[in-house]
Amino acid sequence: MSLEIASRIVAAPRTVVLSRPLKRMLILGVLVAIVVVLFMTLNARGNWGFVLRFRGVKIAAMALVAYAIAVSTVLFQTASNNRILSPSIMGFDALYVLIQTMLIFVLGAQRAVAIHPQVRFLAEVFIMVAFAGLLYRWLFGKSRRSLHLLILVGIIFGVLFRSATSMMQRMIDPNEFSVLQDLLFASFNSFDRQLLLLSALLIGGASLAAWRIAHTFDVLALGRETAINLGVDYQRTVSVILVVVTIMVAVSTALVGPVTFFGLLVANLAYLLIGTHKHRWILPCAVALALIFLIGGQLIVERIFAFNTSLSIIVEFFGGIMFIVLLIRGIAR
Amino acid sequence: MSKECAAIILRNTIPQKQFSIAVAVVAVCAVISLFIGVSNVTPALLLSRTEDSHTLQVLLVSRIPRTLAILLAGGSMAVVGMIMQLLARNNFVEPSTAGTVEAATLGLLAVAIVAPGIPLMGKMLVASLFALAGTVLFLRILRMVPLRSVLVAPLIGIMLGGVIGAVTTFFAYRLDLLQSLNAWMTGSFAGVLRGRYELLWLSLVMMVVAYITADRFTVAGMGQDFTTNLGMNYNQVWALGLIIVALVTSVVVVTVGMIPFLGLVVPNIVRTIFGDNMRRSVPWVVVFGAGFMLICDIIGRTLRYPYEIPVGVVVGVVGSVLFLYLLLRKDAHVA
Predict the structure, then answer these.
(1) Distance separating alpha carbons of residues B263 and B260, to the nearest angstrom
(2) Partner residue facing A327 (CB), from B145, B173, B314
(3) Whole-complex ipTM
(4) Exposure string (b/e) for B231-253, b if CB count within 10 Å is 16 or more?
(5) Hey, what domains does chain A have and what are their CATH numbers?
(6) What is the pLDDT of residues B245-269, one digit of tens each?
(7) Which terminal CB of chain B, N or C, has fewer other CB atoms within 10 Å?
(8) Fold of B3-330
(9) pTM for the complete prediction?
């Protein structure tokens, strides 16, 4: 016993040097490196140049998605001052799929395919930002609504968007529908390589916009009244965050399709793990966790389940359970 | 209760005139529904008495069963929603916001894996056992939650449904049953033919049972203490209610597929007119539910004629819009 205490005293000065968040971040960094290396090298046969390039593109896409989902969820939770909402629970990604479908519905599949994919992608993102901006402005607008109402309304909006999407898909001529399916079908195994660079640029731009107001995040997390009291231009800041979040969701949905609970899982684990409310720690921690889960999860799905399942199903299962636990614990007040 | 007594109650509580108008409207829609479809069936053709029995055949084998199935499924789902809302004392609960439907689907999948050969009745019974278990699980979880808002119940139910759905999808994906799963998940009357919908008559029986025992549910809706005070066995009412809910849900899922939000929207609309007395509102709920389903199916059949949009999708759009309206109108949360 005394020996243990003594060893603790001896060890004490060292722990002071590395604060708890920093230590955890370092561990997470090492884990990220391990999954990346494993993903790149495991079961690799044949030409290394090809393997590394093939998997490198895949990892780049996953990294982009992980980053977009993690950052957008944390920022969304900061802006709406709670820990249970996430953009996808509020129906953002369902909205994006609806917009994709609507564009093809209005233009016709042949003409939609003829448009350069990058131009179409930009148009979709633009419509999405405008539309989501209006919708969520109205929802989060003047009258203060209860959090439970917001979540439920968001979920029902999601159902509405999904139903409207499938309604529109069935209104399209069955012959054209196959074209549409190719366009809409996105997963971690079949994302559009052409869009990767453009997505990176869009996310980079959004990150820059977020970076410029990053100093207000910690204050914003204190709640609307406090933030205004402390001199934050609340309306403007929240609007900027919403636009940033919308762009990130659009990009990640375009790349891999909707993954409802992933952001929620990652953000809440980050809060739990890092033990501080400062965004300079939470954001990188959430991104690191997202990378580990996404790449590690894909590794497991590909190598252990041999593609015989989909990562999003597993995420849905654990995310749903965690959501219920959050509700039971009364975190959503 | 004697027949006379029931008749008196009927006469006193239902505004006869409006009710007959409502029934007439649904009947007209039902007749219209008989004559919509790719195969040419018109009243004139039917009356012309040609040797061609094809028209009559289509009417008897496809159109009439379909219309009956729509009426039965719509009416019974609405009644089930109302029962759940009274028992849980929460206006935003119904089979698809309580994990019941998803549990029934999981049951169907289990049957498809373990014993694919058993008759429809057996499948339905297994599904209703699962539905029962799912609903009980939902109510258990609900008891653990600090209830601050009525909205927590549907939230938990939808999430529980998502979790059960994920399990179902996981196994369906691995065992190549995703297609059958999709059929159960989106309600459609396109596959309804004579010989493939008769199980739905069971839901008519359940509707009648619900009507006879309606007063018990009304009382149970006022809470356990109140119910016990009136000398009723609270748990018995609960058990009865849950059995009706599980049976009707699984019958509808087996024969038609999932119909989201109908059981939530219809009773809430009726409630704004007639209040919480179940016996008084059951006939209205049945008529509204049947009419709602019928109109949605007619929309689905005509919007992209000659193709068909499944009724589950149409109800999904219309139902979620109405649900949003119910949530966002001003005094929604007093309940």
Answers:
(1) 8
(2) B145
(3) 0.83
(4) eeebeebbebbbebbbbbbbbbb
(5) 20-328 (1.10.3470.10)
(6) 999 999 999 888 889 899 999 999 8
(7) N
(8) ABC transporter involved in vitamin B12 uptake, BtuC (1.10.3470)
(9) 0.83
